[in-house]
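Inputs:
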Amino acid sequence: MEKSRTLRDRLRLGLRRGGHACFVLFRVTVPTFILMDLLRRVGVVQAIGAACAPFMSMFRLPGEAAIPVLLGCFINVYTATAALGSLGLSGGQVTTLGLMLGMAHSLFVETTVLKSAGARALRLLVYRMVMALLVGWGASRLFIGSGQ
Amino acid sequence: MPGGAAFIAALVAEGGSFGAAILGASLSGMMFSLKIALILVPALILYELLAPLPVFERCGRALGPWLSRLGMSPPCTVPLVAGLFLGIIYGAGIIIPIAEEKKIGPDELHCLGLFLCTCHAIIEDTLLFALAGAGGPGEVAGRMLLLAGLRLFLALAVLGGRQALLRRRGKKPSLALD
C-alpha cells in the first residue's frame, strides 16, 4: 500500500519532469528553427559564421557552430540543442560541441545557484569557461578529422 | 534528422514564399523536438521510478570513502548526487538548503562546485546533445556514453589532481586522507 503510493508519486514526478522538459523543448525549438531559417535566408547566419570562423576553427568547427555555443552559454541547453539541430553538423562535430556546451551552459542561472549555495561562484565560472575551451580543443583533435 | 529537414526544405522550396518558409522551419523544428522527446521523456520517467531503489542508496553510502579522496565529506553526497543527476538548476532545491545548513565547509563546497560544474545533469543534458546529431540508435547511445563518461572522468581528474596538488604543496587537504 505504502509502496504503491510512493511508486505512483514517483511516476507522477517523472511525468511532470518529462512533461516540463517536453514543454521547454517544443517552446524553444520551434521558434529557434524558424529564427535560424529566417536568419539564414537573410544571410545573418553566414555573417556570424564568417566572423566566428577564425575562432571556431581552433576547434575544427564551422563558424556557424558559434551560434549554439553562445546560445547555450547565455540561455540554456535546449536553445543550444535546437540551434545545433538546425545546422546539420557531423557526428564528431556534435560530440565536440556537446562536450563544450556540457562544460559551459546556462552560465547566468547556474552561477547564481552556486553563489546562493555559498560556493566561490566567480572562480567556478572562469573554471568552466577555460575547461570548455580546453575540452573543445582536445575533443576536436579526437573526434573531428583534420581534413575539415 | 537532416534527412527529414531536407525533405521538408525540398517540399517548401517549390513555393518559396515567406509563409511556406516559416511552415517548413516549424515543421522540421517540431520533428526535431519530437525525436528528442520520444527518448528524453521515457528516460526521465524511468529515472524517477528507479532512483529510490535501495540498491542506489547503498551505492550512495559506498561513495563516502571515495568522496574524501576528492576533498568532500559524507554530507556532500546528497547535493552531489542531486546535481549529478538532476542538474544544478533542478537540483538547486536540494543543493542550496543543505549548503545553508553549514555542515559543508567552504573548501568542500568549492570542491562540490568544481565537480558539479564539470559534470551535472548527466541524463538530460547528455541525451539532448547525443540526440542533436545525426545517426542511428547505436551512434546516439555511443555518443551519450562518450559524453557522460568523459565528463565524469574529467570531474574526477580535476578534483583528484587538485587534492594531489594541495598535498604536494604541503597544505593540509580539506580532509585527512589516512
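The CA atoms of residues 34 and 40 of chain B lie 10 Å apart. Flag for discussion at group meeting.
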